[in-house]
Write a structure and sequence with these properties.
There is one protein chain. The chain has 8 helices and 15 strands. The chain is an alpha+beta fold. The protein has 2 domains: 13-147, Fructose-1,6-Bisphosphatase, subunit A, domain 1 (Fructose-1,6-Bisphosphatase, Chain A, domain 1); 156-264, D-Maltodextrin-Binding Protein, domain 2 (3-Layer(aba) Sandwich), CATH 3.40.190.80. The protein is globular. Mg(2+) binds at residues 76, 92, 94-95, 216. InterPro entries: Inositol_monoP_metal-BS, Inositol_monophosphatase-like. Keywords: Hydrolase, Magnesium, Metal-binding.
């Protein structure tokens, strides 16, 4: 699993094994709900939540509480327990609930292990695609056990650019949206975690994303960094639990710098 772009000390194999077991548990549970009859509720911000969101997170929490009783757990549906713990597991049980409830297969499961607020393990599970992206910044990134790395693309005008949450960016930052529409050699609109996973695997060169929560971006951060990429907020600051949810992912530092200039220009 060693990535030639990384030479930091390793994370324990036991911890990684547990993360993979949780991903398998969550992916199996999500497939059991997918394209079935779902009870749907709407939160105060009008975002939907289904029985699957709650059920998957409940199963993951039960596993983590049994195996790591001294760790905190921060999940989208059931909140933050153990905020004072040095080690915390962060969970998004169904990343892309709107995709999930409409039968669209590009929803994910996100899991991260944080130490002092920084992820040292990240997992992006794609239950309907049978894909699991795993990242350990000190060791590298894999897709279903095979090593992956980001592309070597350094130029925005030659890049494959994904714009996530484009409708929200257009609403809140119309001038930036107009610039993004003139950027990249190829651009696509998308949502949720999969474009970032494709970036880690070298298929996508850059992703501009918006209005995320820590459980959306911290697990992804570990995977992208482990694959050799760069992910920060729109100001170039490191991502943490207090970040404002505006993120840029890029395959290289040069491409990341160019995107920062565009976003802040």
């Amino acid at each position: 699993m060693l990535n030639p772009k990384s030479s930091k000390p390793t994370v324990t194999a036991d911890l990684i094994s547990h993360a993979m077991a949780v991903a398998d548990l969550a992916n199996t549970a999500a497939r059991g709900y997918f394209r079935g009859k779902l009870g749907v509720e709407f939160k105060s911000d009008e975002s939907p939540v289904t029985q699957a969101d709650k059920g998957v997170e409940a199963q993951v929490r039960t596993y983590l509480e049994q195996h790591f009783p001294d760790h905190g757990i921060f999940g989208e549906e059931h909140g933050f327990e153990g905020q004072n713990c040095r080690e915390v597991w962060i969970i998004d049980p169904i990343d892309g609930t709107r995709s999930f409830l409409s039968g669209h297969p590009l929803f994910g499961f996100l899991l991260g292990h944080l130490v002092d607020g920084k992820p040292d393990i990240g997992v992006i599970g794609m239950p309907a695609l049978n894909e699991v992206f795993t990242g350990v910044p000190s060791q590298g990134a894999t897709l279903n056990g095979d090593i992956i790395t980001t592309s070597n693309q350094k130029r925005l005008d030659q890049s494959i650019l994904f714009v996530n949450e484009g409708d929200k960016i257009y609403r809140d930052h119309p001038s930036l949206f107009a610039k993004l529409m003139q950027s990249g050699q190829t651009r696509r609109f998308a949502y949720d975690c999969y474009p970032h996973a494709l970036l880690a695997a070298g298929h996508v060169d850059a992703v501009v994303d918006y209005d995320l929560q820590p459980y959306d971006f911290l697990p992804v951060l570990a995977v992208i960094e482990a694959a050799g990429g760069v992910m920060t907020d729109w100001e170039g600051k490191p991502l943490d639990l207090k970040s404002d949810g505006r993120v840029i992912s890029a395959a290289t530092s040069e491409l990341h710098a160019e995107l920062l200039n565009l976003v802040n220009g």
